[in-house]
Design brief:
By secondary structure, the protein is mostly helical. Helix 1 packs antiparallel against helix 2 (34-59), helix 1 runs parallel beside helix 3 (64-95) and helix 2 packs antiparallel against helix 3. The chain has four helices and no strands. The protein has helices spanning 5-29, 34-59, 64-95, 101-105. Helices cover 83% and strands 0% of the residues. The mean pLDDT is 82. The radius of gyration is 18 Å and the shape is elongated.
């Protein structure tokens, strides 16, 4: 276990929550921008996370392997969680029957 375990866990929770918030707002406000926004955010997230891993690996060489393993495991788990939740939300949004006349006209 790395000395950074709680930092990694908290960092992943915060970034996943922020990304989820932005993506759900984008899907609600402008569905046509959802896919490009998702791709851009995913690319930025991946590049940022790789930068963090690289910097930590250079600074803390003895602790790098544990940090990288924990980080990558949480990265994949949170990425899977993020996609599953977004797919469920988008699926529910598109399968809901219209509730009023304004929704019928859309």
């Amino acid at each position: 276990q790395s000395t950074y375990s709680w930092f990694i866990f908290g960092f992943m929770i915060i970034t996943t929550a922020l990304i989820h918030f932005v993506l759900t707002k984008t899907a609600a406000n402008n569905p046509k921008k959802f896919i490009p926004t998702f791709m851009i955010i995913t690319a930025i997230k991946m590049f940022g996370y790789l930068t963090i891993l690289f910097v930590v690996a250079l600074i803390k060489r003895q602790e790098a392997m544990g940090f990288v393993l924990q980080f990558l495991i949480l990265y994949f788990l949170y990425s899977i969680f993020e996609v599953v939740v977004l797919l469920k939300q988008l699926k529910n949004k598109h399968t809901k029957p219209p509730t009023n006349h304004v929704d019928i006209l859309k």
